[in-house]
Amino acid sequence: MTKLALVVDDSMVIRKMVTATLKQLGFETVEAGNGKDALSVAQGKTLALVITDLNMPVMNGLEFIRELRADASHKFTPIVFLTTENENQIREDARAAGATAWVVKPFHPDKIISVIQRVAA
């Protein structure tokens, strides 16, 4: 069975890098440039993993995670926060919103692979 991952980032370059890494791990991917679009993309899909940025236009990563978690079908989907932010308060906010793990940009593909293998194995 194919594992589907949603990659949410306003940077197309980051989305492509993350998508390439996920494909190495056998994931199919769908992408969105902000949280609002990501909610539309996620609707009706069974996601094995979500990787989202924090700072995005329209709807940021924290708002997106809260909205996604409110949908019963995504209540337990692993969500990796991928961001340049490294402040404890933001980490706590992300965890409270429902983030499963955290990766700081810039990231090395090996780092994101180890986190994905830990949360979405």
UniProtKB/TrEMBL annotation:
A family per Pfam: Response_reg
PROSITE patterns: RESPONSE_REGULATORY (PS50110)
Superkingdom per UniProt: Bacteria
Matching SMART domains: REC
4-aspartylphosphate PTM sites in chain numbering: D53
Signal peptide positions on this chain: none
Residues in Response regulatory domain copies: 4-120
Record's keyword terms, sorted: Phosphoprotein, Receptor
Protein's GO biological process: phosphorelay signal transduction system
InterPro entries assigned: CheY-like_superfamily, Sig_transdc_resp-reg_receiver, ST_Response_Regulator
UniProt cross-references to PANTHER family, sorted A to Z: TWO-COMPONENT RESPONSE REGULATOR (PTHR43228), TWO-COMPONENT RESPONSE REGULATOR ARR22 (PTHR43228:SF1)
Protein name (record): Chemotaxis regulator-transmits chemoreceptor signals to flagelllar motor components CheY
UniProt source species: Labilithrix luteola
